């Protein structure tokens, strides 16, 4: 099942809050915590490269590298939009709220694939580190924001000790994003030639977690589900990963699917 070209590599996982306001930012942080716990259970090392806090709670986005054999191969099942339905803890009336967060996944392809980036195609800004774990918060402009002008891709890194280190990590993230973009183009073209419809936009949830009026976590591609949402959010993601990999191996699982509950 884990026979893909990059399955054995480390994974670079990014989470972005979607629609749903503060609840979506809280949901993004819940997902980050879930994957960090999953990595810890597998004794994988983790390093947070970027962490953007929400205004009231949660996070706007975060990028973390998960280092371990087959980390990318396992976690590629998680790429897509994740939905949460619950009674909002941020609503005074405690109403039911639907929130979305997007998970992006890239293999760490540094030193394994040549991605050519011309220096004149990169725009670099520096700013003061903010967020969790920044030892240089409000002291030095060590954080780096790097923009690839031709593609419009923007990456940031703020949690290394120096601006030079942050630049190196940002370049690494940029290469991974460019590789992901080219890989997606290739996959979409292959699907088009096969006559398949590929829907990979943000509005397509691959998995839903519902904690009101009942408890269920369900993958809409494999139909695998569990009523133990507490264990799932605590990092017990393996059953969903294995179900996805098994169906991918048999050619059944679709890249993405939507199911309304």
From TrEMBL:
InterPro entries: PCRF, Pep_chain_release_fac_I, Pep_chain_release_fac_I_sf, PrfB. Residues 128-144 form the Prokaryotic-type class I peptide chain release factors domain. SMART domains: PCRF. Keywords: Methylation, Protein biosynthesis. PANTHER family: CLASS I PEPTIDE CHAIN RELEASE FACTOR, PEPTIDE CHAIN RELEASE FACTOR 2. Peptide chain release factor 2 directs the termination of translation in response to the peptide chain termination codons UGA and UAA. Belongs to the prokaryotic/mitochondrial release factor family. This is Peptide chain release factor 2. It comes from Ktedonobacter robiniae. The lineage of its organism: Bacteria, Bacillati, Chloroflexota, Ktedonobacteria, Ktedonobacterales.
């Amino acid at each position: 099942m884990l026979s893909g070209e990059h399955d054995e590599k480390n994974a670079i996982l990014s989470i972005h809050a979607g629609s749903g306001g503060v609840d979506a930012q809280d949901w993004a942080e819940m997902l980050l915590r879930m994957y960090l716990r999953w990595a810890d259970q597998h004794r994988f090392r983790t390093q947070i490269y970027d962490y953007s806090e929400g205004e009231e709670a949660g996070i706007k986005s975060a990028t973390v590298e998960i280092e371990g054999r087959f980390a990318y191969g396992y976690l590629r099942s998680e790429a897509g939009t994740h939905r949460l339905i619950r009674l909002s803890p941020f609503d005074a009336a405690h109403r039911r709220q639907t929130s979305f967060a997007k998970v992006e996944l890239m293999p760490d392809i540094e030193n394994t694939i040549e991605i050519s980036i011309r220096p004149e195609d990169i725009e670099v800004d520096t700013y003061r580190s903010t967020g969790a774990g920044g030892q240089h918060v409000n002291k030095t402009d060590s954080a780096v924001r790097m923009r690839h002008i031709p593609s419009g891709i923007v990456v940031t890194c703020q949690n290394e000790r120096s601006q030079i280190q942050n630049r190196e990590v940002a370049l690494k993230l940029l290469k991974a994003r460019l590789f992901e973009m080219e890989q997606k183009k290739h996959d979409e073209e292959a699907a088009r030639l096969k006559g398949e419809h590929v829907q990979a936009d943000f509005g397509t949830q691959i998995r839903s977690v519902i904690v009101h009026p009942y408890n269920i976590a369900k993958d809409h591609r494999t139909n695998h589900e569990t009523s133990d949402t507490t264990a799932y959010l605590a990092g017990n993601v393996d059953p969903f990963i294995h179900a996805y990999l098994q169906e991918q191996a048999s050619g059944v699982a679709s890249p993405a699917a939507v199911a309304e509950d």
